[in-house]
Structure formats: structure tokens, C-alpha cells
Design a protein that fits this description.
It is a single chain. This protein is α/β, with parallel strands linked by helices and 618 residues long. The protein is built from 21 helices and 18 strands. The N and C termini lie far apart (71 Å).
Length: 618
């Protein structure tokens, strides 16, 4: 039998029909889990490509290879469903290294959602069983089928700007990601001085992507600084912001928005989160440099392992007499933050370990938000009783998947069939909504308590997020920057006025936080090589910004004048958008104009953003 006759045979048609039915069932389960409806046209095309690839795999596997296929299919379907529910995308295959970290496994995988793993494994086995029942004879020309499947994978990979959006197909996306996933570990994470010089020659002359601007006022009595990072928070969750941009958030934090206004905060409506993942956002917020836009985030690691040096905002405050503290809820070992934080200027560093008794294991990611913020309030009161000014950075964990609220949480091993039924009946995004509401209540009490004790009187308070998560549009795939709707809210110390701060509609970003803190504490002249624009800058200086979303693989080049370039991970496919600078997220429209940066210019910009100063030899 020839390859063509095999491909057009009734047995292969049956196999493909079985594969398509299985993929559609999995697709339906994803919609129920996440609440995300993919674009129907793109979904059908993706699932047909996935069915072709899966039909070939079913036709050429047997024995141990078939068992492996069942395990991979079931496991991949489980992980993809969870990733869609939490991040709105399929998983990036090359990021699997973070998924096998023990802290990540105990924090995000061992919970009631893991009950779905055996369900997906069973569904993959049922696909195998059905194939054996209805297609009893193996197909010939397996070599030709493999070549055909490889061709389908290649065409699929080049057809989509992102391989992980909800429209993509699980099987087709998985195999299309393999080539880049295999190459990624061997790509150098360092840029030499000669490469930097070459990149500088290719940098466009009419852009301003590495902008720094401060006012550098004299400050007689520097205030305390409280920097609150809420895991996964988006300004789109505040009703005034979502209404302003016509967003459709999964969560509404009406009470927190009202309380922030009561305490004198300004919420910025066009706040950008630079990237996804905590280590990337935290690095930018503390050090005033771009996060790592490469697939594997290395900047924190390179600092810890003394391959690169950074001059970060906490160290400037420490050198000026501040007491600096970093208090997070998660274990410090994850992402090596226990080693990174002292290197960038924090003298008091603590994590989930302080919430457990000696010898006890940490439960999941750490304490729920009511426990965390209550503990932080007590510590802040003790710190405020000292004479030195202080700078404290916080990061909660209750709003991180699996969204531990501390209310009726299940103990390990306490799963049963009733838990599975409850999980199946849960409204999509309800777990996130409950966690955000719990955080809202805890943060409100925390701020109210600090205000009643007078601690906020002489304190600059900045509320932001390490990254922006959640679904904020009716169609999560229609527009870029869906995962970059960040949050930045500022409360000046008493005696200061918001009138001298940037207006609420100005485009701001995480990278603006370090120069703002240094400016307000009188250290604006010490920003060094930091990138960012202080919120005290009133003049309308137009700049450009680099952003990305590691979960979709998209890279963004934004001009504050009203242009955006959205590019694929390899930057070979780009689309151009325009927007109103005062209403960034609500006015994005795609245009037919050519990209305002060439491929060489885009590459040069990202290479320059990745560069870090090497540690000088003693």
C-alpha cells in the first residue's frame, strides 16, 4: 500500500475521526475549566491539524510506545487545562524546568486540581482502547506517515504568531514547540562587549527604549517606603479602570478601590506590567532594569552566582541610612530570592519559613493572606518604633495558584469523589475570585490598621504587582497586551501632594517604580544606569518601552506616542497597532502599516535589554 493510499484509506479516516472527537472533548473540558472561548475559526483549523498529527501517532505506535503516548497525552492535557485556567494560555514546553521544582510541585500541583490528572489519563486510555476496537489492523507506510506529520507540524508552527493561545491545539502546539525547546538550553545567556557594540550600531536612532528621567529634588525629611507587591494583581480588577478601558475582568475589587481612594492613593489607568513570572517582575521593580525577555529568565540567577552585577534601589536606600526589609510569604529558596535579596540591598529578608515552627514543612506556597498581612502589620509596628527610616517590600502568595484563602482548605491526601464533583461544578475563575476577595479584605484591614496607628503619615506607599494575571477581555486573543495590564497605585506621605505627581492617565510601568522611590526619598541623583521615569516628572517626554509575555511568546515594542509592534517569539511575524496614549488598553486597533522597526533593530533592542554588567575581577 502506498503512502497516498494509506492516507486516504478508511482506516486512517476512522483514526482521524477518533482523534478529532477526543480533541473536541478535551477542548470542551478546557472551556469548562477556564471559561475561555477560543476563536471558532482558528480553533477548528487547529484541531484538524492536531487530529491529523494524533491520527499518525495512533497509527504508528504499539506496545511501550503506545503506553508512553497515553501517558504524555493525559499528562499534557492535564497541565494544559490547568495552565489555561490560571494564565489563559497553554504551557510553554521549554519552561518545563520550573515545573519540576519541588517548591512548585508542592505549591501548585499537589492540590484538589490534581484530581483531574487521572481523569485525563483515563480519557487518553479510552482513546487508545477505542482505536484498538475500531481500527483492528495496523496501517502500512509508517515512514511516509511520519514525514507527513512532520510537515503538518512545520506548517502549523509557522502559521501562528503564538503557539500557546487558547485557539491553539494541544497536540499540534506541543510538537511545534519541540524544536525551539531543544535549542533553548544551548543558546548563550550572555552578551559579549563586541556583540553589544555590534548591536549598538543596529539600534534605531529615532527611538528611546532606554529612557531615564528624574526630577531629583532636595528632600529634608525622607519618608519611609512601603512597597506592596500583590501576586497577579491587575488594575483591570478595579471597576473605574475596567470601565475606562471597556475591559471584562474576572474579578472586581470594589472595596479595595474605595479604600485606596479613602487613604489618598492615585490609581494609574495605563499601568504596564513588563513580563510574566515573579522573578522577572520583581527584578524590574527593585533594580530599574528590563526583565529577562528571553525564554529562560537568568538575571536573578546571574546576580546570585556572581556572573553579573546590578546597582539596585534597595542598596541606594541602605547606603543612605534606611533599614531595608524584604518580607514575602513564599519560601525564599524558590527562584533563589533568599540569596538575591541581600545582594541588592535588603538586610532583613524572610519568607514562608517564619510562619512555620522549627522542623515543620512549609504548607504549599506559604500562609494565606489574612495570616500574612496580620503578621506583617505586627512587624511593621515594631520597625516603625525605631529611629531610622525604613523601606519594606512585601509579596503575598494567597492570590497565586492554587489560590489558598485559608478557609476550609483540604489537607494533603484528603481528596475523595465529592471533591471531584465539587471541582467539576466550580464556576470558572471562582477560585481566583475568592482568593482576590480574601486578599482585598486582608489588605484593607492592613492599611486601615497602619493608618489608625499613624504609620502611613510619614510613609510613601506603592501598590503594584509582580506580574499581571487574569482575564480582562471578552475575547482574550483579540488584542495584544492582555497579560500586561499591570497596576500602580501611589499614596504620598502626609505633607506631599498628588498634584506634583504624573496624572492618572499617563502611561506608567513597573520600571518607573525604582526612580520614583529614589526621587521621593531625595536620592534621585543616584539612579545610575537605571531605566525608568519618575512619577514626579510632569513634562510630557515621549519614550518607548519593551514588554513581553513569556506564556504566549510574544514580544512588544511600544511607543508612547500611540504605536505598538506585536511580534512572535522569533520576531519573524509582527503586527502593527495604534492606540490613544491616554487610553492604551481600550483603544488598540490593528493597522496595515509596516513594522516601524526592522528585524535587525528588534533583535538589537532585545539583546541590549538582556545585557548585564559582568562582575569585575578582583
Amino acid at each position: 500500500m502506498t503512502f497516498l493510499s494509506t492516507l486516504t484509506s478508511w482506516r486512517f479516516a476512522q483514526t482521524m475521526l477518533l482523534a478529532l472527537c477526543w480533541l473536541l472533548i478535551v477542548r470542551a473540558s478546557y472551556i469548562l475549566q477556564s471559561g475561555l472561548w477560543p476563536n471558532p475559526v482558528g480553533m477548528i483549523a487547529s484541531d484538524l491539524a492536531g487530529a491529523l498529527i494524533l491520527a499518525v501517532l495512533l497509527s504508528i505506535t504499539a506496545g511501550a510506545a503506545r503506553v508512553l503516548l497515553i501517558v504524555i497525552l493525559g499528562s499534557a492535557a492535564f497541565v494544559a487545562g490547568m495552565h489555561l485556567s490560571v494564565h489563559g494560555t497553554f504551557f510553554q514546553l521549554a519552561l518545563i524546568g520550573k515545573g519540576v521544582d519541588p517548591t512548585f510541585i508542592t505549591g501548585s500541583l499537589i492540590n484538589r486540581h490534581s484530581l483531574l490528572l487521572p481523569v485525563y489519563l483515563l480519557s487518553a486510555w479510552l482513546l487508545h482502547w477505542s482505536h484498538r476496537q475500531f481500527v483492528t489492523q495496523p496501517l502500512a507506510e509508517s515512514k511516509g506517515l511520519v514525514i507527513f506529520a512532520t510537515l503538518v507540524v512545520a506548517v502549523y508552527g509557522f502559521s501562528f504568531q503564538s503557539l500557546t493561545t487558547p485557539t491553539n491545539n494541544l497536540v499540534a502546539s506541543f510538537f511545534s514547540q519541540i524544536p525551539v525547546a531543544l535549542v533553548s538550553p544551548f543558546i548563550s545567556s550572555e552578551s559579549s562587549e563586541s556583540e553589544m557594540a555590534e548591536n549598538a550600531q543596529e539600534m534605531p536612532g529615532d527611538t528611546n527604549f532606554f529612557h531615564q528621567q528624574v526630577v531629583a529634588p532636595y528632600v529634608k525629611n525622607p519618608p519611609n517606603v512601603l512597597l506592596i507587591m500583590v501576586e497577579g494583581l491587575s488594575a483591570g480588577y478595579f471597576p473605574s479602570v475596567s470601565d475606562y478601558h471597556n475591559l471584562n475582568p474576572a474579578v472586581e475589587l470594589k472595596s479595595l478601590e474605595k479604600n485606596l481612594a479613602r487613604h489618598g492613593f492615585r490609581i494609574y489607568r495605563n499601568a504596564l506590567s513588563m513580563e510574566r513570572q515573579t522573578d522577572r517582575g520583581t527584578f524590574t521593580i527593585l533594580c530599574g532594569e528590563y526583565p529577562d525577555f528571553r525564554r529562560h529568565s537568568r538575571k536573578m540567577v546571574d546576580v546570585v552566582e556572581e556572573r553579573a552585577s546590578v546597582d539596585c534601589m534597595p542598596s541606594k536606600l541602605l547606603e543612605s541610612g534606611y533599614t531595608t526589609a524584604y518580607w514575602q510569604a513564599a519560601p525564599l529558596g524558590y527562584m533563589q530570592k533568599g540569596e538575591f535579596m541581600p545582594r541588592v540591598g535588603f538586610e532583613d529578608v524572610s519568607g514562608a519559613e517564619v510562619f512555620t515552627r522549627e522542623g515543620e514543612e512549609i504548607d504549599g506556597w506559604g500562609p494565606p493572606d489574612p495570616v500574612y498581612f496580620n503578621n506583617i502589620g505586627k512587624r511593621l509596628r515594631k520597625l516603625d518604633a525605631t529611629s531610622a527610616p525604613w523601606m519594606v517590600t512585601l509579596l503575598n502568595v494567597g492570590t497565586h495558584h492554587p489560590f489558598n484563602t485559608g478557609k476550609g482548605e483540604l489537607e494533603d491526601g484528603d481528596f475523595d469523589t465529592e471533591d471531584l464533583e465539587e471541582l467539576a461544578d466550580t464556576e470558572p475563575q471562582e477560585a481566583r475570585r475568592k482568593a482576590m476577595k480574601t486578599m482585598e479584605e486582608a489588605l484593607n484591614r492592613f492599611l486601615d490598621g497602619l493608618a489608625s496607628d499613624g504609620i502611613l503619615d510619614d510613609t510613601l506607599v506603592i501598590l503594584t504587582s509582580d506580574e499581571s494575571g487574569g482575564f480582562i477581555r471578552e475575547d482574550p486573543e483579540s488584542l495584544p497586551l492582555n497579560s500586561n495590564v499591570g497596576v500602580l497605585a501611589v499614596r504620598p506621605p502626609n505633607g506631599d501632594s498628588l498634584a506634583r505627581y504624573a496624572p492618572e492617565n499617563q502611561i506608567v510601568a513597573q520600571i518607573d517604580i525604582p526612580p520614583t522611590i529614589l526621587d521621593i526619598t531625595g536620592l534621585g541623583r543616584r539612579t545610575g544606569d537605571m531605566i525608568g521615569r519618575s512619577l514626579l516628572v510632569q513634562q510630557n517626554t515621549t519614550r518607548d518601552l519593551l514588554l513581553a509575555d513569556t506564556y504566549t511568546g510574544l514580544k512588544y515594542f511600544l511607543r508612547e506616542s500611540g504605536k505598538l509592534l506585536s511580534c512572535s517569539e522569533l520576531m519573524t511575524k509582527c503586527s502593527t497597532w495604534q492606540f490613544d496614549p491616554k487610553r492604551l488598553f481600550g483603544t488598540l486597533k490593528q493597522t496595515e502599516t509596516a513594522p516601524f522597526l526592522t528585524f535587525e533593530e528588534r533583535t538589537a533592542l532585545l539583546n541590549n535589554a538582556s545585557y548585564m554588567k559582568p562582575v569585575e575581577s578582583p
